[in-house]
């Protein structure tokens, strides 16, 4: 959430910044609400002051035996007016909060201009695309050859956009997740966390999924409304909600492997074939919580940690800086990692690493105590996939396929598969 005080003092600058995203901030509506709020604030404070003065006068009058009926009558009138003004002020403040909850984050200066995907900027390309020497099969065909991907069985029990992985595909999927966790914990210094897969609405609101994207979430009705997590970012980042963290504990670095649940509202017709876009998938998620003066460094570091998985797997990829119009709602800056898929002859997103500044922290009341001032200040939050497990499986199958459909096991995964070096076709 944007800083309300900053917005009041820099309204036109905020509107101009948000326009870089293609977001229209209604200056006239905001100014009208803010004008009413200020007026009600002054009137409320004046009534509170008058009520206090009357209370003191009534107390003194009674102690001296004076008739205080007129004072009591005025006090009752002031109290009623204060009640009405306070209710009106509370309503306006709720209206302002709703406006802020639906307003995206400001765009960082380093973010390239542009309003659509075509305006994104490739920063670097890493690794060599495989020279297969034959027409690449896609992961769906390869999965069928290994009797390891069953979309029909999944559809019978769950509907479209689900898959059952079996045999070598299930084992390779598990190996990838375990390799990612081990790398991030042992080499990159993250603490592994096992988190709930269901959260309360306030946790979703804290990271920016609500109220803006309610139609993209799976809500569970019960004694209390809960949501299936769209990413482990939600429970991991909310570990610092309503907390004040000591400076010596920062940065906090967490990693978790979880299923993710997304309704993919508005995505029908896109990537309907295979595992690229599903309602349920798995990710290994990285989250860092940092002090503001160290958060940009943490963002670059976290991105390099996600890249390290692709490098270890020897998968060709590129790093793309998203333009202003392609940024997510809560992000002030984002790098996408896109892996090469031979069957599509293009790069596809496999990780999105984002810097949120204090946008999420303000929603969550997540703070740290600055030792220089001894006062609580808002934290900065950063996260990214390290990596999306299903899409990594797709990339491994397609980049390591052989002419007969068998799959060479990347060297770093062989120990997780009992030393197996090749996944033979299931004839």
- Name the shape in a single word: elongated
What is the H level of CATH, i.e. the homologous superfamily of the largest domain?
A: Bira Bifunctional Protein, Domain 2
Rg computed from alpha carbons, rounded to a whole number of angstroms:
27 Å
How many alpha or pi helices? 12
First-residue to last-residue Cα separation? 55 Å
H and E order: HHHHEHEHEHEEHEEHEEEHEEEHEEEHEE
Query: What's the CATH first level of the largest domain?
Result: Alpha Beta
Number of domains: 2
Low-pLDDT stretches are none
Estimate the mean pLDDT confidence: 96
Which percent range describes the beta-strand content?
15-25%
Structural class: alpha+beta
Largest sheet: 8 strands, mixed
Q: Return the CATH topology of the largest domain.
A: BirA Bifunctional Protein, domain 2
- Going across the major beta sheet, what is the strand order? 1-11-12-13-16-10-9-4
Number of strands: 18
| CATH architectural designation of the largest domain | 2-Layer Sandwich
- Residue share in helices? 25-40%
């Amino acid at each position: 959430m944007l800083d309300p005080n900053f917005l009041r003092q820099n309204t036109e600058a905020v509107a101009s910044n948000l326009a870089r995203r293609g977001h229209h901030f209604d200056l006239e509506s905001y100014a009208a609400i803010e004008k009413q709020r200020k007026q009600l604030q002054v009137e409320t404070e004046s009534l509170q002051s008058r009520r206090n003065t009357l209370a003191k006068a009534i107390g003194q009058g009674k102690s001296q035996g004076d008739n205080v009926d007129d004072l009591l009558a005025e006090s009752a009138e002031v109290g009623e007016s204060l009640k009405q003004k306070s209710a009106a002020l509370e309503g306006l403040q709720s209206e302002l909060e709703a406006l802020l909850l639906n307003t995206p984050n400001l765009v960082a200066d380093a973010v390239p201009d542009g309003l659509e995907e075509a305006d994104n900027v490739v920063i670097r390309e890493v690794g060599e695309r495989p020279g297969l020497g034959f027409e690449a099969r896609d992961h769906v065909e390869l999965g069928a050859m290994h009797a390891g991907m069953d979309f029909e069985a999944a559809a019978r029990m769950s509907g479209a956009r689900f898959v059952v992985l079996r045999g070598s595909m299930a084992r390779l999927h598990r190996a990838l997740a375990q390799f990612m966790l081990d790398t991030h914990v042992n080499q990159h210094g993250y603490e592994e966390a096992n988190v709930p897969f269901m959260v309360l609405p306030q946790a979703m609101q804290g990271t920016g999924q609500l109220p803006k994207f309610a139609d993209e979430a799976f809500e569970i009705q019960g004694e209390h409304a809960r949501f299936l997590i769209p990413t482990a970012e939600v429970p991991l980042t909310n570990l610092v909600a309503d907390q004040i963290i000591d400076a010596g504990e920062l940065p906090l670095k967490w990693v978790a492997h979880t299923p993710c649940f997304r309704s993919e509202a508005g995505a029908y017709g896109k990537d309907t074939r295979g595992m690229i876009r599903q309602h349920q998938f798995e990710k290994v998620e990285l989250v860092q919580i940092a002090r503001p003066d160290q958060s940009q460094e943490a963002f670059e570091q976290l991105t390099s940690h996600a890249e390290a998985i692709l490098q270890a797997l020897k998968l060709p990829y590129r790093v793309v800086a998203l333009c202003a119009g392609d940024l997510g709602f809560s992000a002030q800056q984002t790098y996408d990692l896109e892996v090469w898929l031979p069957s599509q002859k293009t790069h596809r997103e496999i990780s999105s690493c984002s810097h949120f500044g204090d946008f999420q922290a303000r929603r969550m009341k997540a703070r740290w105590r600055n030792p220089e001032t001894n006062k609580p200040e808002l934290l900065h939050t950063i996260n990214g996939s390290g990596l999306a497990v299903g899409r990594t499986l797709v990339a491994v199958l397609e980049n390591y396929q052989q002419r007969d459909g068998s799959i060479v096991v990347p060297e770093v995964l062989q120990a997780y598969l009992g030393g197996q070096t090749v996944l033979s076709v299931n004839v």
